Amino acid sequence: MLAMLKALLAEISLIQIMDGILLLCLVGLALYWTRRTRVAIFLRGFLLLLLLYLITESLPLLHLLLDRLLIGAAVAMGILFQPELRGLLEYLGRGALLHTLIENYQPLADGDGLDKEDYLEELVQAVRELSQNRTGALIVIEMNEPIDPRIFTDKGVQLNARLSRELLQTIFQTSTLLHDGAVVLQQNRIRSAGVILPVSDRVASRQLGTRHRAAMGISEQTKCLCVVISEETGSISLAEAGRLERPLTSSRLRELLIEKLRPPRPVKTDSALGRFQPAQVLNVLQRFSRNLPTPLQKMMSKE
User: What average pLDDT does range 95-123 have in this prediction?
Assistant: First the structure.
């Protein structure tokens, strides 16, 4: 075995090593670029096909089939994801790659002296008053990491303003230019307003309007929460992973936001035995099962 490894290493040149490193860098960059977009799943499937193609060279029929599939998949990517490819070229043309790689994401809280509880209270109070006045609103709440702006149909106006109930209510007044779009919250700040969100293709209830479909659409494509206030009824809804929870009271909304925005607790180990504590493991499994698609949840519950 050792002799085989030595023979293999002897055949590999420095150029081949550099070639492999550059290829891995390009693949990593592609996965980083698409990590929060719908392209990510397609790209992972394409890379799997490519890997199978490379390792089946000794199987001519399967190799030929995979060759044709790769060509078709490459053409399909160019057609289906034309906006994303155009955005990538524009992004590279602006020289923004280096900025993205060194950019630091600000943690939750608090250069403005606004902790998480205060920030949620400001948000809930604004939602309650907008609901009472039957003022339509759409509020996107980022979770663990910022939302990729390329997902938005229109990026709106960048504000980077401190969150306050007064500012939120002002933005959604019908006399303002930004009231028709969504507000994007990044931790305790209003990142942007007037944002146009992608609309879900799923068939929804006739009672749901464009705001609800937009909330479903953005939560399908990225990990976020989206609060919707109906202009007709004033009812409050919360969208996550393409699903709507409605109608909600302001107190119930507060409970859900606290629960869903709470940072995950690390799984503790027994220092004496070096094993996972059963209660912690069960907690992790329950959290994992709640994030599974509905069909898988049903299968697991039957078992």
Answer: 57
